[in-house]
Automatic annotation (TrEMBL):
Ranges where the SNRNP25 ubiquitin-like domain occurs: 47-133
Pfam families: Ubiquitin_4
UniProt record, GO biological process: mRNA splicing, via spliceosome
UniProt name for this protein: U11/U12 small nuclear ribonucleoprotein 25 kDa protein-like isoform X1
Record InterPro entries: SNRNP25 (IPR039690), SNRNP25_ubiquitin (IPR040610), Ubiquitin-like_domsf (IPR029071)
Organism: Gossypium hirsutum (Upland cotton)
């Protein structure tokens, strides 16, 4: 990280644009000097995690401490996209996340909206892949089978309805012949 990424506290005299708001804060606070410094929110330091693949090899990822599981997955995808091509070809991430998930301390990290800190994950911890069939992946797979079934041509009607259809077509032909 660059030094510019961090903002140091400044007094009101160093930042004339904000001096008016400081004055009003002091007045509202009974004139206390407690609010004499402005603090900008410091950027979070990234945490470094080690991930063990199914083949036993490791790779490292960096995420923010307050990252979600979805952010962690994106970081994993990014690491793989930066690796030199080792004959793996194109990785289908929906397929990967549909069959595998990351795991920490026997907890499957499957809820994309959960924060990683919810699971107690901190800098230097190790995660690993485990087999897991996602219900979302199964739902998508089921839907695609249904849509394929819908796209197939319908089977012929029963023989009795087929005969009645043919009779009505014959009647139409006879009526058309009379009209000529």
């Amino acid at each position: 990280m660059e030094v510019e990424d961090f903002v140091t506290p400044r007094s009101a005299s160093e930042n004339p644009q904000r001096s008016t708001s400081l004055t009003s804060l002091r007045t509202a606070n009974g004139g206390s000097l407690r609010n004499s410094f402005l603090y900008a929110k410091l950027r979070e330091e990234p945490i470094k995690l080690s991930v063990r693949k199914l083949d036993g090899s490791f790779f490292d990822v960096e995420i923010l401490k307050m990252a979600t599981i979805a952010d962690l997955k994106l970081a994993v995808e990014h690491v793989f996209s930066q690796m030199p091509d080792q004959g793996l070809g194109e990785i289908s991430w929906p397929h990967v996340w549909g069959h595998f998930c990351l795991c920490y301390d026997a907890q499957k990290l499957v809820s994309d909206t959960d924060l990683v800190v919810k699971y107690g994950i901190r800098d230097g911890h190790q995660l690993h892949f485990v087999r897991h069939v996602s219900s979302i992946y199964n739902l998508t797979k089921t839907r695609s089978k249904r849509s394929v079934a819908r796209k197939r041509p319908y089977l012929l009607k029963s023989t009795s309805s087929l005969k009645s259809t043919l009779k009505s077509e014959k009647n139409v032909e006879e009526i058309n012949a009379l009209g000529r």
